[in-house]
Amino acid sequence: MQELTHYINGAHVKGTSGRFADIYNPATGEVQAKCPLASTSELETAVAAAQAAQPAWAAVNPQRRARVMMKFVDLLNRDMDKLAEALSREHGKTLPDAKGDVIRGLEVVEYCIGAPQLLKGEFTDSAGPGIDMYSMKQALGVTAGITPFNFPAMIPMWMFAPAIVCGNAFILKPSERDPSVPLMLAELMEEAGAPKGILQVVNGDKEAVDAILQNEVIQSVGFVGSTPIAAYIYAEGCANGKRVQCFGGAKNHMIIMPDADMNQAADALVGAGYGAAGERCMAISVAVAVGDGTADRLLEKLVPKVETLKVGPYTSGDDVDYGPVVTAAAKANIERLVQTGLDQGATLAVDGRDFKLQGYEDGFFVGPHLFDNVTPDMDIYKHEIFGPVLSTVRVNTYEDGLKLAMDHEYGNGTAIFTRDGDTARDFANRVNVGMVGVNVPIPVPLAYHTFGGWKKSVFGDLNQHGPDAFKFYTRTKTVTSRWPSGLKEGGEFSIPVME
Ligand code: NAD
Fold first, then answer.
1. Domain ranges of the chain
2. How far, CA to CA in Å, does 493 sit from each of 132, 251, 354, 487, 499?
3. Does 281 qualify as catalytic in the annotation?
4. With a 6 A CB cut-off, is 105 part of the ligand 1 pocket?
5. How far is CA 118 from CA 20, 110, 136, in A?
6. Ligand 1 pocket check for 273: Cβ under 6 Å
7. Class level of CATH domain 2-248+457-481
8. Strands (E) located in 11-109
9. Which atom of ligand 1 is least distant from the CA of 227?
10. Fewer CB within 10 Å, N side or C side of the chain?
């Protein structure tokens, strides 16, 4: 049985706590490796290495730090196939989707190459007689991030690339379900030129997370995962005086107007609802059809597409639309929620319950499910299912659809499908959701914009990547400087004001 390691101070280090988590091959259900779960003292070893390495790294000029990112991009491209394969093997997603996971992270690394420009401060010449004022963006010091299983390449890179290019050291606590790619990324960063101790991977569970939250050296914590854990980490981290940003769960609504192109809407829904087995925080999980006629026309197109989705292991290559879910527990939770949907009166328009794949009977595969006649009081509507289950809600008017999306506790992403510019514009302006698609089902902003939801999908003020990341990972210092031209006599006793 393969035993994975931590990556501390430039070396793979075996776990010493004696505690391990099982890493499954989700396609076969077999345990394929063990992930060490760090103790507080293992985390502290990493913090000490980070603290020792960080000041010299912050003193490296931004252009040189950016060059490490340039080299890292090359290495990611060189190792793309290897990274994607390792990712699919532990996560279960298809190989093209695993490459997308790496590429969406790589794009943020590319953005970080602009650090010399992005880290420039402001300067006011002659703010007063002989007085100049300027601001600097300085690194925080040692920073940390805790990431979810569903994007084991992209989300770590969204955090560590801006943190490191800003001059910080970064400790990554990835998901214990699929930590191999994060370990590979740490090796590649070092090959690209990051000094030892600047990017470290400490594997673990709640014990390692609590050690991060309580550690006095760590200045900031980034978190992406489920909302209850996000709320906990935000509260604890803030109480301990850290800068914290936490991104949580989602229930993304797609409004389908009567004038929408139904073929386009149905295609968008199969991709956004079932891609990555629905294990995406930007997956569409609720289709909101405006008018019964719209719902009927949509389902007529959608049902055959959902029924013919190809589900299988990533080793089948391009011939698979989505793979297994990540664990047996995730599968059981999806099945439980599907049963509540039936018990509470929803119609199962496509029933994926009996799905079996020959040769993979013990894998964590879930067949595609499509519900119709879902209402807001049902558990399948209220909760994030994180599986290949799409719920259709029928509403009478556009205003009813908008209200539905607005009343849900989550506010990560949403979309509207329509041919009417005025409706689309009204929706984008009024909806209280952080990322909006107009005829685009998964509106994940590109690297140079920022990513973040609203409501219970986020805790904190700044978004991920784009300009916000450079704010999150730096502190502003403002200097007021005067070089007197001659001798001054005496002190000034009233507060200085600019003339
Ligand atoms: P999770 O909350 O179970 O785990 C996330 C991280 O928290 C992991 O590193 C895990 O080890 C750690 N953790 C788990 N339990 C903990 C505890 N009790 N105390 C401290 N730390 C703990 O989430 P997951 O299942 O890995 O990921 C799926 C969730 O992430 C979904 O809810 C999804 O919507 C969300 N997500 C959100 C975004 C976003 O940007 N909003 C992006 C991706 C995923």
1. 2-248+457-481, 252-438
2. 21, 58, 82, 18, 16
3. yes
4. no
5. 41, 13, 11
6. no
7. alpha beta
8. 11-13, 20-25, 30-36
9. 32
10. C
Looking at residue 409, the DSSP 8-state letter turns out to be: S
Matching residue, tokens 């101790």:
197
**Helices assigned H by DSSP within 284-359:** 292-307, 328-343
Check pocket membership of 230 for ligand 1, CB cut-off 6 A: no
Atom of ligand 1 nearest to the CA of 176: 11
Ligand 1 contact via 410 beta carbon (within 6 Å): no
pLDDT tens, position by position, 31-77: 999 999 999 999 999 999 999 999 999 999 999 999 999 999 999 99
- 2-248+457-481 and 252-438 in the same fold: no
So what CATH class is 252-438? alpha beta
Cα 412 to Cα 227, 436, 448: the distances in Å are 11, 9, 18
Q: Which of 359, 348, 331, 444 is nearest to 101 (CA)?
A: 444
Straight-line distance from the first to the last Cα atom of the chain, in angstroms, rounded to the nearest whole number: 74
Give the other-Cβ count within 10 Å of 255's Cβ: 29
pLDDT digits (tens, 9 = 90+) for 283-341: 999 999 999 999 999 999 999 999 999 999 999 877 899 999 999 999 999 999 999 99
Residue 489 — pLDDT band, cuts 50, 70, 90?
A: low
Find tokens 């609590």 and name the residue.
210
DSSP category for residue 460: S
